[in-house]
Amino acid sequence: MFELSFIWAGIIAFAVLTYVILDGFDLGVGILFPLADGEREKSTMMNSIAPIWDGNETWLVLGGGGLFAVFPLAYAIIMPALYMPIILMLLALIFRGVAFEYRWRTERWKPVWDVAFFGGSIVAAFMQGIALGALVQGIEITGRAYSGGWWDWLSTFSILTGLAVVVGYALLGATWIILKTEGDLQRRMQGYAWWLGTATLGFIGIVSILTPFQDPEYFNRWLNLPGSIFSVLMPGAMLFAAWALFTGLNAGKDGQPFLASISIFVLCFIGIGISFYPNIVPPSLTIVDAAAPDKSLRFALVGTVVLVPMILAYTAYAYWVFRGKVDPEEGYH
Question: Which residue ranges form the domains of the chain, and what is each CATH number?
Answer without folding.
Answer: 4-321 (1.20.1630.10)
